[in-house]
Amino acid sequence: MLKRVFIFLNVLALLVLLLSCLAAYIDPKLFWQFSFIGFAFPVVLVINFLFLAVWLLKRSKLGFLPLLAILLSWKFIHATFAFNFLDKSKETGIRLMTWNVKSFDLYNWTHNIETRRKMMDLIKKENPDVLCLQEFYSNNQVFHNVEFLRDTLGYKYCYFPPAVELVKTPRSKLQKTLWRSGTLDQQWGVATFSKFPITDTGRVDFGNSLANSCIYTDVNMEGKNVRLYNVHFQSIHLGYDDYAAIDSLEENQQTNWGAMKNIMRKMKKAYIKRSQQANSVAAQIDAYKGTQILCGDFNDVPVSYTYNAVSKSLDDAFIERGFGFGATFANKFSIFRIDYALFDPDIQINTYRIIRKELSDHYPVLVSFSL
What we know:
Strand content: 15-25%
CATH superfamily of the largest domain: Endonuclease/exonuclease/phosphatase
Number of strands: 15
Number of helices: 13
Mean pLDDT: 90
Helix content: 25-40%
CATH architecture of the largest domain: 4-Layer Sandwich
Low-confidence stretches: 177-182
CATH topology of the largest domain: Deoxyribonuclease I, Chain A
């Protein structure tokens, strides 16, 4: 009886693993439920490996069940867990960094007034040739980040069309004196900085989001024109109560079902919006005939419709040169890779490195490559 139950559970784990793979192909707009199963892919994969280990210890032929599931899902295993070791001596050629900087800690979520300076110091130390930033923020007073990156860190070329812009006009002479100008401009969005000349720029219209966006820059890299897409796909927009519920689940194993239901509702909405955005970016990639790179914050895992839609014709730098789960979401329990750097097959990827500094809620990713 116990053996039958174990076999039933193994078959169930096999089916869930295979169903999770379908998340890469089924548009959440049609069946959003598959996106949640795809999100659970790493956990279900580990369960199947445990079943395989048990059957191998028992020397049972039933080991073919989890083995079959693992083999059928190998493409997605490879996208989730990479098997390469870093050789920093090969970090040559052009260096690109992509990083969601969370507004350079504008709202002091780290409770450390030094965070912005440390982020700028990290960029200065790594000194990438091209810098793609998401949740970028700048204003014309203290947080004049565009000017700092351009004038102090040497990124002569920049494209930053704000997705959200706030202009405050002073109503008194005192306010005008305090602000030192007629307006206080605040700007948010995605920004691309380059030490190579930028020859053309543009945006990919999402149409379904105010804060999330995708831009492209044509960059003359060592005499070759490369189209570089910098994207921030739809965020889930979790609030303080949502994060508190997640922390409680992780640390105390206590589940607030009302809060979790609210989180799942937000995730469903984000999955559907991201699929539409990914289709728009994929259409741009398919239409462009030159060399291209796509990087940024996808807000989605490798076993997802978002990732699969935009990566079909591009090579994933993590798969080529990364190791482990490649978690880019900065959380002590996280195994989720949600930030990506995808390259035209004509480009040689030399190294891939995640810089594990908790200055934002995302880790920066640094890739070196040769044209």
